[in-house]
Design goal:
Strand content: over 45%
Radius of gyration: 25 Å
Number of helices: 3
Helix content: under 10%
Shape: globular
CATH topology of one domain: Porin
Largest sheet: 24 strands, antiparallel, barrel
Number of strands: 30
């Protein structure tokens, strides 16, 4: 806290000296924020947790002050649905920011993405407990076709209960759009990271490493064609000797082609020695909205992978639209890591019935063996009398895993929008997998909007654990049996 207080004081003093007095006119003071509180009680493990989060921002003139508070209270230290060592309470993010037409300056916690995320991306995904917010200073300036962003910050990466990795990042991004059909950008990011172990004294050469990432990109909009390319490189050091071990590189290309009746989209990736806590480049793997397909999502290797994703969208008459494609990933030695073929047909069968059917066939290879997934899904959205609506979802997936065992998963969901302020939903899942402790899971939820700004949710039942993925980050959610109460409010 002392460090951030010093940064805030220095930034405030600099702005007070450099800015006109009109920047500090309070005018109307605006306060915005949200409150989320969730209580879980797992009857199977006889453990409970309260997870609360308060976000608020106060806007005074051109200044914005904000913070996020998190409370994670466990009935038993050994029971943690998040499966992470989260503090019982903390001020998770706090910041002060000045903004005008061309300049923004922020001190404290911030998120930042350079380009497609090859050089730098810090962000938060609350559902997956992923948070790489930097603590430091973020400055942005734009004038005409030019834009500049400068960052300097630190973040701590937990490696285990006793080991952490402290990252320090300094970077600059410059972008120019001289014409409306082209955008050029370049970045330079200096990074260092140091490991600390509560039980060991690590050798300096092993504990501390650093590198510099240089990155350039071009985006083109040429009528019905949109093209994008980005390339980044870094020098990689041996973590033990400190000597140069090679050159890391990352290349990403994408293109969209509107052919009138048919729209084509393609991506290509080439990542070599490029993994880092603060990068998150495109996966070139389709992210499915379906639960079973999402669990089978392939996790890329940023240190040794080359691959592509290609898909096309074609309207079939006035009531149907077909999307189909494929993706593949290989190591640089040519070994196949993953492939997938997928398709989805969106339909509008009648004025009151719409939805989609989808399918996916994929294989993921490990040490010459593979896990195969064959998954089908369907969803129907039906308009009912009295402005009601119902959604029905069905998913079926078969898996042959790397151990040679085979099993089938079934999932069904029903959501009833009884009124504009009342939703009732239920999910049923069954599996023939012999490694699961139970064969079936069932849960139901009721969601009620008490006002325009307040919503409450009640849920009960059993939920199967499994992999959840979003934007290239995956997390294994534990199984749950019990009750859930959630309150969300906005102000």
């Amino acid at each position: 806290m002392k460090r951030i207080a010093t940064v805030l004081a220095a930034l405030g003093a600099s702005l007070a000296w450099a800015l006109p007095a009109s920047s500090f006119d309070a005018g109307d003071v605006t306060v915005r924020g949200s409150v989320d509180g969730e209580y879980l009680h797992n009857v199977d493990l006889d453990g409970s947790v309260f997870d609360g989060r308060v976000e608020f921002g106060i806007e005074v003139g051109r200044f914005l002050l904000g913070a996020t508070y998190r409370a994670y209270q466990l009935s038993d230290p050994g029971y943690s649905p998040a499966q992470k060592d989260i503090p019982r309470s903390e001020v998770r993010h706090r910041y002060a920011e000045f903004r005008n037409e061309s300049l923004s300056a922020r001190a404290g916690s911030f998120f930042c993405t350079f380009g497609k995320g090859l050089a730098l991306r810090s962000y938060e995904q609350t559902d997956l407990e992923h948070d790489t917010a930097l603590d430091g200073v973020l400055i942005g300036y734009g004038t005409g076709p030019l834009a500049f962003t400068a960052v300097s910050g630190v973040v701590s990466e937990p490696l285990s209960r006793v080991r952490t990795r402290e990252h320090t990042v300094r970077g600059l991004e410059a972008a120019a759009a001289p014409w409306d059909w082209v955008r050029l950008s370049a970045r330079a990011v200096e990074r260092s990271w140091e490991d600390a172990d509560a039980n060991l004294v690590l050798p300096p050469a092993q504990a501390r490493r650093e590198d510099v990432v240089l990155d350039g990109a071009v985006d083109l909009w040429l009528g019905r064609v949109a093209l994008s390319g980005e390339y980044a490189r870094r020098d990689v050091e041996n973590p033990v000797t400190g000597a140069e071990a090679g050159e890391g590189r990352a290349l990403y290309l994408s293109g969209t082609f509107d052919l009138g009746l048919l729209t084509l989209f393609g991506e290509f990736k080439d990542y070599d020695l490029f993994s880092h806590h603060l990068i998150n480049p495109p996966t070139c793997v389709r992210e499915h909205p379906w639960t079973l397909m999402n669990r089978a999502t392939y996790e890329i290797s940023l240190d040794d992978e080359r691959g592509f994703l290609g898909e096309g969208t074609l309207p079939v008459g006035d009531a149907l639209s077909l999307t189909a494609g494929a993706s593949e990933a290989r190591t640089h030695s040519g070994n196949l890591s993953h492939w997938e073929i997928f398709g989805e047909l969106s339909h509008s069968l009648a004025a009151s019935v719409s939805g989609a059917v989808a399918g996916s066939w994929s294989r993921e290879y490990l040490l010459g063996k593979f896990t195969e997934h064959l998954i089908g899904a369907a969803e129907f959205d039906v308009e009912l009398p009295a402005e009601q609506r119902a959604e029905l979802g069905i998913e079926i997936g078969s898996t042959d895993d790397v151990t040679g065992s085979a099993y089938t998963d079934y999932m069904g969901s029903l959501t009833w929008y009884a009124r504009a302020d009342l939703t009732v939903s239920a999910v049923f899942e069954r599996s023939t997998a012999d490694f699961e402790e139970r064969e079936a899971w069932f849960s139901a939820e009721l969601k009620k909007r008490l006002s325009d700004d307040v919503e409450v949710l009640f849920g009960a039942g059993t939920q199967r654990g499994g992999k959840k993925c979003a934007g290239g980050v995956c997390w294994f959610e534990p199984e749950f049996e019990g009750v859930r109460v959630r309150l969300s409010a906005y102000f």
